[in-house]
Design a protein that fits this description.
single chain, alpha+beta, SH3 type barrels, six-stranded antiparallel β-sheet, 2 helices, elongated
Length: 117
């Protein structure tokens, strides 16, 4: 009996993600954090104190040779950093200011769809 309970609990914690259903939302969202960072991807509200983002992208500014020129901004897919993070991330809900759906016309959403091909 104890083994069965353990296996059932393991199944639910490992494979069922405890996400809250979201109807009528966009394919991609922008997640704005209290530290000023913004992440883009598929946002999932989860039960508990953490939210999940899959297929994560972020903006990176690169300063050119001219220090007086505005820096170039590019969108980067998370996962190629030195520490090799997974393509999903968990964020404490307390760090999230707000979440917005990206429209199909959004240049960031278009890039993300094209990049996934």
């Amino acid at each position: 009996m104890g083994t069965t309970v353990f296996l059932v609990a393991l199944f639910f914690t490992q494979w069922w993600d405890f996400t809250v259903p979201a109807l009528g939302r966009g394919q991609y969202q922008a997640v704005f954090l209290s530290n000023g960072q913004t992440y883009f991807g598929r946002y999932y509200d989860r039960f508990g104190s953490y939210a999940k983002i899959e297929d994560v992208y972020y903006l990176q500014q690169i300063q050119g040779a001219d220090p007086n020129a505005a820096p170039d901004t590019k969108i980067v897919r998370r996962g190629n950093e030195l520490h090799g993070p997974a393509p999903r991330m968990l964020l404490p809900k307390s760090a999230i200011l707000f979440v917005e759906d990206l429209t199909d016309a959004s240049p960031i959403a278009q890039f993300m769809r094209q990049d996934r091909r």
